[in-house]
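User: Can you recover a sequence for this backbone? Please restate the input before giving your answer.

Assistant: Of course. Working from this structure:
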């Protein structure tokens, strides 16, 4: 059986590749935030602060050397993409910090 390959020009291949990457990126951005379990810490997808619903904007784990020390979740009314945007708003916000180890003072 003879196989046939279609040869794409460099411009068309680049456009197809960029289109696929952008399409997958927008699918990921449009996905709703769900409850998250991160390193044993649970973060709900939505909480209420001062009578306003806040959504989980992001979460992460803090390391000290090779050890997981804490997990952090940031809740905001609207999705924000930079620290400057978060700090410049006067909206309610909440940061939840969960210690993953015994910490001494």
């Amino acid at each position: 059986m003879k196989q046939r390959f279609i040869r794409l020009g460099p411009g068309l291949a680049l456009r197809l590749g960029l289109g696929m990457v952008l399409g997958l990126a927008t699918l990921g951005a449009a996905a709703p935030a769900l409850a998250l379990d991160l390193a044993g810490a649970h973060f709900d997808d939505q909480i209420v602060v001062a009578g306003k619903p806040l959504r989980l904007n992001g979460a992460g784990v803090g390391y000290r050397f090779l050890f997981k020390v804490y997990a952090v979740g940031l809740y905001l009314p609207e999705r924000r993409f930079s620290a400057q945007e978060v700090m410049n708003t006067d909206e309610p916000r909440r940061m939840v910090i969960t210690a993953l180890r015994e910490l001494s003072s």
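That completes the design. Residues 5 and 21 are 23 Å apart (CA to CA).
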